[in-house]
Amino acid sequence: MPLIHRSPDTGVWLLTTPRTSYALWIDDSGAPCHLAWGPRLTTTEADALAVPAGDPPSSFEGRPPVGEELPVDGGTRYGPPSLQVRHPDGTRGFEWRPTGHRVLTDVPGSAELVLEFRDRLRPLRVALHYRVRDDTDVIERWTVLHNTGHEPLELLRADSAAWTLPPLAGYRLSHVTGQWSAETQLRRDPLPFGETVLTSRRGITSHHANPWVMLDGGAAGEDHGPVWSAVLAWSGSWRVTVQRTPDGRAGLTGGAGHDGTCVPLAPGEEFTTPVFAGLYSEGGFGAASRAWHSYVRTHVLPHPAEPAPVLYNSWEATGFDVDEAGQKALAERAARIGVELYVVDDGWFGARRSDRAGLGDWSPAPDRFPAGLGPLAQAVHDLGMRFGVWVEPEMVNPDSDLYRAHPDWVLHVPGRERTELRNQLVLNFARDDVADWAHGWLTRLIAGHGVDFLKWDMNRAFGEAGWPGHRDGNDRLWTRYVANLYGVLDRLRAEHPRLRIETCSGGGGRVDLGILARTDQAWVSDNTDAVDRLVIQHGFSQVYPARVMSAWVTDVPNQLTGHSVPLRFRFHVAMAGLLGIGGDLTRWSEEELVESAELVAAYKKVRHLVQRGRQYRLTEPLGEGPTAVQYLADDASELLLLAYRRSPRHGTPRLPVRLRDLVPGARYRDTVTGTVHHAAVLTGYGLDLDLPSGDWASTALHLVRVPDEVRPADA
């Protein structure tokens, strides 16, 4: 069956993925309408869904509030619009008039459907884009809007797509919420009637919500049940509106922007929305997560197959007290325990002695690095490690040479106070001169100082978000800022192919598919406490793979929470993602350094499973029993099991942990103890974890399939 097919009899478009189908058609009014999203359909079965909507149930009803591919503002539509236009005369509305379609198949293994429309009365063209591939059930959707007239328009809302669910007896909404140092807290709640809005008005993706949702009928679990999900690829302000209607339907719409702003569209101008991708899965939340993980690794990340190095970051060891001698001493200890990438954090530049000054003056401090960063980079390279630095290109301290020279470069409103957060202001990246300045000093830094890696931070949300002197600047900056940010990252990567980048925004404030298409990993949270991280990492893994999840081992008591847990436990938690170390190695004992080197070496043996394997959340975090996560090779030839237990309560049942998706009839050998386990026992009856006694116990089990030919004859 082709990936995209149009019925000559009914006009139904059928989009086919490996396990699912998506069907739509253009109704008699000219509007694109949803028909199906779920299990695979034949073309004949999809045609049977093409039934005219009929009259409303009463004279008090208009068009159904869900069911259109991009609900517009106009006519008798009363649900949340995906497209809301204000015309030059102040009127609003849009009426669909189809003008054609295209099916693009120039990329092997994929197909793209473009449905083209215009407004019946006004000079506005709209193109709905759908992309499907033969190796994923994720469907990518976006919209292109083109002002073909001679006067400017305002897009009051320009969402990427709307998604419609089938009628169900009930609906449940899954999403994450949180705050700084407590990001990605998973919530699963019944979907209330009416409209539920998830959003960021901060100019960044935000710590407080993330632009994805999952919906089910209320009975799905980790390993069973149908789940519908959608993820927005955008790194600025965003909005997703989920709606449950009184007539038993549910749908959602989402895109860039937030209430109170618009996208100006000048004559001849075109606006392309970010991708709002959707996925239907029949295997519960776990299967949905694994499908998203595979999609991100295969179709989003720049270098998904490249093993991420073990990283050391200097921040918690030195704070702002950074100099060449101290960094070299730390680098020597980091190399000793097996670190592969050494990163100098904040404090290496300008007059940066605290967070009150220096941001914007991106030259190595001459009193701390007399010859620049080159000698330190060379020392790090000589130790066999790559060299990285922390940067915050989008920020400036008022106490800086840059701000004194260019006070107009920051987001501001004339006559209003310039509100500082963390003693800093936001540079207006929507301005091309600011973006070009950032690209210039960054490329000089990378090329002139042997930099292999950037930790790109962004430590505060927008404030006084104005762009004086630019027509429509106060509205235009929200999308233009992100476009220029993407442009700088794209240029740097093209000019420096060996450069790798970590996205960071005061922790997990900028994690989304848009930024991950231009970076290699994400700093998930400034909270490095291993106990809290179990919950944070659980929520993060709902959509994002372990391949992008940076996780550090830091000192105890933890700087933020005061928790003290064993070094091994801290390592095992960080080994669930991209292992990093952030403690002050000059204070670690000889025994701790030796143990750390052993654990780093153990991680290197299994990181291919963590970074490229299929992830299974076997238990919930911090329950009565152990928290367990499994990483399985694609061919099920080997696996890693990470398990953690907090302080055991006397009398708590000791339950085995059941593994997932092993080869039936196979046997698996523990690479440390040599113990051989039967797959049928591991999956059907479970593994009794031999966790050490006491508080905060953990283990890492690496099991490898025993070749069939060496089995005993009676096996």
Automatic annotation (TrEMBL):
It comes from the Bacteria. Residues 53-94 are annotated as: Disordered. This is Alpha-galactosidase. Residues 30-265 form the Glycosyl hydrolase family 36 N-terminal domain. Keywords: Glycosidase, Hydrolase. Pfam families: Glyco_hydro_36C (PF16874), Glyco_hydro_36N (PF16875), Melibiase (PF02065). Belongs to the glycosyl hydrolase. It catalyses: Hydrolysis of terminal, non-reducing alpha-D-galactose residues in alpha-D-galactosides, including galactose oligosaccharides, galactomannans and galactolipids. The active site is at D457, D526. InterPro entries: Aldolase_TIM (IPR013785), Alpga-gal_N_sf (IPR038417), Alpha-glycosidase_related (IPR050985), GH (IPR017853), Glyco_hydro_27/36_CS (IPR000111), Glyco_hydro_36 (IPR002252), Glyco_hydro_36_C (IPR031705), Glyco_hydro_36_N (IPR031704).
